[in-house]
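Lab notebook page, bench 4
Experiment: in silico fold of construct C2
Operator: M.H.
Input chain length: 320 residues
Purpose: comparison with the prior construct
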Amino acid sequence: MDLLTEIKEKAITGTPCSIDDALKISRLYNINDICDAADEVRRATQGNAIDSCSIVNARSGRCTEDCKWCAQSRHFSTGCNEYEIIPETDLFNAVEVNTSKGVKRFSLVTSGRKVSKEDIRRFCDLYRKISAKSHIHLCASMGLLDKEQLQQLRDAGVTRYHCNLETGPSYFPELCTTHSMVDKLQTIRWAREVGMEVCSGGIIGMGETMRDRLEMAATARDAGACSIPVNILNPIKGTPLENTPPMSEEDIILTVALIRLVAPACALRFAGGRLRLSEKATRRIMRGGMNGALVGDMLTTVGNNIDSDRELFEDMDFKW
């Protein structure tokens, strides 16, 4: 049995590929063969249903953190919108649109290191109001919360917490100095302790190596993440990464396929940045390990149209 077949068959039964073996097959095998193997793993472990989700920017700008990719950091001048809490009318309009289009999950995302104890109560009230209007599954992405705050969100109906690792542990200090990977992993542990699922992935194309990307996925997997979002860097003018050269489509396709083999039991979610991809590349990625999608607009950039996404995925025989 050759190495790729061995890795594929182990992944189908739940045994992740090691990072070293993933890098090895990336050198030894054709990209289409790797994608085909990853897609077999996806079908066996995840099925054909698209795990769809949508987000709303519930608090924008003025973030104290210095993450080099982010338009919302107050360390950089990007001209992003700034507001404290999204107006309820805008929020409930977004909930109604996503519910009517069959999106499975909906998340409030806030800028900043964390939400204050006072404001967490305000957001919990909003979540309760959403639950009264819709049966959509609720997620939250509110930074480095403590266990008490996470419990409050869980009690308000939030079933999944999002905390991206962003990149591999060894590369993270190159991109952010105001908090650490240790801080993120502690938040993830607390979220799981209060009974939430965890969504944790990152951004590719920030100058990292393939090993960094796979270490990100393996770290999220080992921390108990059930969902790994993969964002493609959209360089924002005014941030330190504004002139970062774009990744090739082939590199993006290969990254997704290898992450599927490294994290076979996790939902692998197409997130920000995919508007820059050709339809051919998008289809290869969806047939190369991906089984989820963040649909609609992103935090500070325009996203993919929900109806167009649904049409595309259903054309590839995915179930919306």
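Observations: Residues 298-302 have pLDDT under 50 and may be disordered. Residues 117-133 form the longest helix (17 residues).
Next step: discuss at group meeting.
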